[in-house]
Amino acid sequence: MAFPRVASSLLCAGLLALFGATASHAQDRTHWIFDSSFSEETISGPESVRAGEVHSWTATARWTFSYDLLPGERIDLSGLALTFPEFTPPDDYLPADVTPFDAIVCEPDCSGSASFYLSFTATGPFDPPGVTTQPIYLIPMARMTSTSDPHGIHYYDFPIAVPRKRIEITAVPEPATWALMIGGFALVGTLARRRHTARAPFIES
Length: 205
What we know:
By secondary structure, the protein is of the alpha+beta class. Helix content is about 25%, strand content about 45%.
């Protein structure tokens, strides 16, 4: 009866090995997204504004990544942004737009590569006058869920892109300055008219 015992031992060893490999793969979730990087960092918007005026700047960047999922797993993306510190308090994260991206589901393709854009529009006034280089932080995140483990949620933090924009803020003339300028223009106009009258030719009647 040694043969059944040997077969039983081999079967148990095989099941343990298979279970161990599966468990190891299921627990090793640091590699469900890999080789992630970003490019095409831009901020579009005015480069020169008056202090106190409201303008908008849109920051955009593109990410690429590879993925390797197990059956029943899916990836969803979201994004946050930190805008110019003059516009919001520090560490005030705001939602950013992810385009174009549909959820990646392991049915049937469970590995491959994908890309997406993250964008955010900052709107507000700058003050005081000066020249400043302003960053907008774009922070994409991925969430992986599984039908086989409804309570298990895994997150992946992509590298953060920080596009920057050089902005010149010019001063707005004070009311007294405006009055002085208008008075100066009026004086120049009056002097020009007098000079023109003085130079008019004299015609005898």
